[in-house]
Amino acid sequence: MTPFAHRGGARHPDLEGLENTLAAFRHAVALGYRHLETDVHVTRDGVLLAFHDARLDRVTDLTGAIADLTYDEVRAARVGGSEPVPTLEELVAAFPGASFNIDIKSRRAAAPLARFIVERGLQERVMVGSFSPAALREFRRVAGPEVPTSAHPVEVAAFLLAPTGHLARRLTGGRPQALQVPVRHGRVLVVTRRFVEKAHEAGVEVHVWTVDDAEEIRRLHHLGVDGIFTDRTDVLRDTLTELGLWTTEEDS
Question: Any coiled-coil ranges, and where (predicted)?
Answer without folding.
Answer: none
